[in-house]
Structures
1.
Amino acid sequence: MGGSEASIEHPQQPYVPRDLHLPGYVPCFLSQFDIVVPYFGSSIVLVVFIWLLSGRYAKITKTDRLLMCWWAFTGLTHIILEGYFAFSPDFYKENTPFYLAEVWKEYGKADSRYLARDATVVVLEGITGALVGPACLLAVYAIASRKAYSYALQLSISLGQLYGFVAYFMTAYLEGDNFAASPYYYWAYYVGANSPWLPIPILIVIRCWKKISAALQVDKKMKIK
Amino acid sequence: MGGSEASIEHPQQPYVPRDLHLPGYVPCFLSQFDIVVPYFGSSIVLVVFIWLLSGRYAKITKTDRLLMCWWAFTGLTHIILEGYFAFSPDFYKENTPFYLAEVWKEYGKADSRYLARDATVVVLEGITGALVGPACLLAVYAIASRKAYSYALQLSISLGQLYGFVAYFMTAYLEGDNFAASPYYYWAYYVGANSPWLPIPILIVIRCWKKISAALQVDKKMKIK
């Protein structure tokens, strides 16, 4: 490797594969701390806000209040973070410390497909940002106002999240699973940061499935009578 | 293009991009007619069989009987055709006129990603063949035996089909939409053969959504009383 030549062509390009060509790439301005803390911090503020607000309505159970927190958190993550990525092909050229571009420059260290503009990742993030995200916010409203479609909606969204989850990891696996700059980024971001989106949607699918089936069982019995 | 040299390297490789490297490729043995007619023929026999069989149960409505036909047809298509593709990376080397390999050698003329073993296509077909397909057959049973989970199941499967449909076409679009050997194959196979899997799942999603919401509305009113 001609060290100096390579670094002229890819100035401080920290991604794997190392020969990923990113013309106009501008490195991260913010530290990992400055990227992760605002996300966790604003998420905690959001969850506390939704929890307290939903507590003002006596009819909403604690489980439903927790679900409202989840849907608000995951919905805004989908719309703001993932929606930005899906519709910003040039984020890695951003030459100011714009937070959303920084997030994806940093996350790309765990999955360089985001930098390479891999079609699968763009489509999965596009569906998630443009369709699943707004549907999550609708779920917050549907739970709060006890809409009859609330369970069908939550089932649908959770299944969409699970489909995206499986497709995201399976495509990387089939392509050799070599898109992380180090095992640290692989486990912290690629595995760790995505991990809530497997067990939580599964639990919600099971819950909605049971509620829907129980209601239709009642409905069937009434019709037979 | 060095015509004779190219044909030695890719013997009668009929796919686009023309330089797609397929070592060991064996051309189609069967004609388009011999591939399409058995599929249509066996599908019609299946649909007539399910229609007549379901007619023996007086309680099943005509809509539900039609849905049983659809789920049997789409389920077996997913499991047999798409399941075969997902787990047969070497189908294009098949040197006998094995029907399932012929189907994909032929369909590849409309979408060469199937020959190139594109990870997105393999994952989408894998999910469809291994998960969605068996769930479709469960739906046939669930409708016939009037299970309370029938609507949740049909909603889930149809959403999965729609997710796959959108991801399939969007990834091709983002990658330049240039995988068909001719406009004929593009429109007949890529667009035409896939077209039922957009309107039918949408109609089923709407129907299930309404049934589920109505049942939960009834359930809610009963609890209030």
2.
Amino acid sequence: MTSKLTLDQATEVISAAKAKAAELGQPMNIAVVDDGGHLVAFVRMDGAIKASIDISTRKAQTSVMMNAPTSALTDLVQPGAELYGLGQLSGGMVTFGGGVLLKVKEEVVGAVGVSAGSVVEDISVAVAGAEAL
Amino acid sequence: MTSKLTLDQATEVISAAKAKAAELGQPMNIAVVDDGGHLVAFVRMDGAIKASIDISTRKAQTSVMMNAPTSALTDLVQPGAELYGLGQLSGGMVTFGGGVLLKVKEEVVGAVGVSAGSVVEDISVAVAGAEAL
Amino acid sequence: MTSKLTLDQATEVISAAKAKAAELGQPMNIAVVDDGGHLVAFVRMDGAIKASIDISTRKAQTSVMMNAPTSALTDLVQPGAELYGLGQLSGGMVTFGGGVLLKVKEEVVGAVGVSAGSVVEDISVAVAGAEAL
Amino acid sequence: MTSKLTLDQATEVISAAKAKAAELGQPMNIAVVDDGGHLVAFVRMDGAIKASIDISTRKAQTSVMMNAPTSALTDLVQPGAELYGLGQLSGGMVTFGGGVLLKVKEEVVGAVGVSAGSVVEDISVAVAGAEAL
């Protein structure tokens, strides 16, 4: 029943993401899920918007469900593109950047989702978190 | 209470679809529903993305609800087109290809939905499944 | 991204469960999920009630979410008992028997949920499925 | 936009709750919400059941929504009692113990919810968390 992703690992991811967010001066919501999309750890930094509690968590879950970073979906879901309408499926997925897979030795163990800044900032903080593993 | 579509028939559809997916080298989620849209059989091939559990099932259900393949809906739901917004109705429908009606002697008995590859691959696997009947 | 539980293993579980259901003369819905609660395989035997599509799947998911057979919850959720109200939490859980954990070498790899007969029959079919691993 | 409850305070609550859970030998899900019921921090300790992700969060939210510990609701929601049916309102509330208000100088600043053990254990860990403030 224990996840491949431990709470210690999730805490490292969040610490690295928080450090990057502080460097950018942008408070963030940061969510870490296991490879089944179930939440392992979450923080909302002081001043980060409340809407991003859900958005950051769904970004992480979307990465796990799609086995891809959420930024890979953006072009695919535009009007006229192949997966237009995808975002409302599988319980509601986020199709802009900020969700990134977490890997240990090439194996996916979960994902991190970051939200509250611009998409470029969200991605940068999520990547910083993922690189901590 | 027994559907017009038997489990044996649904199993044949899934076997044919799996064979086509293996030929393409693309693991798939494959769902078969009866003419009321209720699930009869489902498989997730090893390595197929989890988001497609819901998407494949809804593709099959959408085909039954619309009495059409899901690929027929794509143009109709674009911004400015006649059925813009359709995807969020009837409990959430999928408006890109991969859902195909199942017919026995010209009578609709259900549908098969396939998801995890490109839309072209999904359609190809769904059609292979439907042709097994 | 591949589950610890393979489709081949899930298919074995379903075959064993189907054989037991046939022996009892009770058509069943049988759902197998991985250790994240995501569906791997499902069958509805001819004549089994449609309500049990959802119930069998949720039984399997509940077992994974609670790390226990669903029959262990029945006494705990009665009026006046410790977990009265549990069934509506975590997305809706089933608190009567028919969901059983799947283990390989003592490790939980998923769960099987069975529904359409009496609770005693459902449990008996689920256990037969679980013992196939 | 900043909550009365800071992330530093929420982290202290979680640390104290984790220490108590470790002392009891019972891995827990621990959620801290602000006075609007919005998540500030969450951890799932290794081995804690997944169903309690939702349950711990809702316990904290229920405490805020009812301005009371969740244990105060248990008697009120039994069949025949005054608030029978309460649990399904306000988005789904938890009516057994493990949700406790967080106060700073007598003012409610949020709540902590704990789930995965017995109700007595959950309450004990939540109270340990709340006393850290």
